[in-house]
Amino acid sequence: MKIVVGTRGSKLALSQTNWVVDVLKRNNPHIEFEIKIIKTKGDIIQNVSLDKIGDKGLFVKEIEEKLLNKEIDMAVHSMKDMPSNLPEGLKFAAVPKREDYRDILVLKEGYKSIDDLPIGAKIGTGSKRRKYQLLKYRPDFNIVSIRGNVDTRIRKIKEENLDGVVLAAAGLHRLNIEDKISYYIPTDIILPAPAQGALAIEIRENDEIIEGIVNSLQDKETEIQVKAERAFLEGVNGSCHIPIGALCNISGNELKIEGLFGTEDGSKIIKKYIKGKPEDAKELGFKLAHMILEEMGKDER
Ligand SMILES: NCc1[nH]cc(CCC(=O)O)c1CC(=O)O
Q: What Pfam families is this protein classified in (predicted)?
């Protein structure tokens, strides 16, 4: 038996996919795996700000087409790049254990923390979620819009004379360049993107064989967190144009989910949390979204 695994070709995508394939190979020595690189619209259009391309599933659509027409049998993505609804005929297989969900700063030589940056420091990020939350903590920051893969963005510190860039910890950990991380941003300063640090393994809906094979990677706690955070994302009906964050933590039999949602221009940002039982993860994510949307609407009237 041979399983063809589709992925984007970025270093990060390949390191994620290699990790998944290595574990699956170890668990299934009789199965052959082939990795197939697929270019997506998000990889081709590199010089335009993501929120100006504004297309949900920018990094996944071409890969999903190849799953549906059976050119590949499974796909590995970053869960946070996945739109809230999958196309007809596809589903997620088991979700592996999540990497660090925090955002981090890579800073220019000499700086160590968000607090020792000079007044008016230039910080690169293309994400409104990161931008408005940073500005809430440090209104003096000068936020510069940047794009590109992890290496490119780090290089822009020198090339564009920035004081630092914001990235996901998970990306640097997976690329084995965590030594470049200057500062882990506490989640009460920047709430991560829904499902940040988690992987998505996408398969055909009726493919029970592959589903069974992927099951060995399952992490129950991550699945519950991702369920709650993605329900919040679906509930606010968000896109990459608007600031959206969500983080679910489980402690014993208590689940807490925090959510953040704002206007496109950052003029209004609302952050709230609720607590409940882990088995109600999805309902709690939706409920929190509706609480926040309601408060959003109230002031607009
Ligand atoms: N926005 C792009 C993206 N999609 C997934 C990751 C890596 C982190 C993850 O798996 O959540 C990144 C890079 C980043 O945000 O710094």
A: Porphobil_deam, Porphobil_deamC
Superfamily of chain region 103-184: Periplasmic binding protein-like II (3.40.190.10)
In 160-219, which ranges are continuous DSSP H helix? 169-174, 208-214
Contact 3, 34 (CB under 8 A): yes
Q: Which atom of ligand 1 is nearest the CA belonging to 197?
A: 11
Contacts by residues 186-189 (CB-CB < 8 Å, ≥ 24 positions apart): 186/102, 187/101, 187/102, 187/247, 187/258, 189/114, 189/133, 189/134, 189/137
Q: Which CATH architecture has domain 2-98+198-218?
A: 3-Layer(aba) Sandwich (3.40)
ipTM over 0.90: yes
What spacing in Å lies between the alpha carbon of 167 and ligand 1's midpoint?
7
Q: Is pLDDT of 182 > 60?
A: yes
Q: How far is CA 84 from the centre of its chain?
A: 12
16-35 burial code (b ≥16 CB/10 A, e <16): bbebbbeebeeeeeeeebeb
Q: What are phi and psi of 148, to 5 degrees?
A: 115, 170
pTM for this model (two decimals):
0.94
Q: What is the pLDDT of residues 123-155, one digit of tens each?
A: 999 999 999 999 999 999 999 999 899 999 999
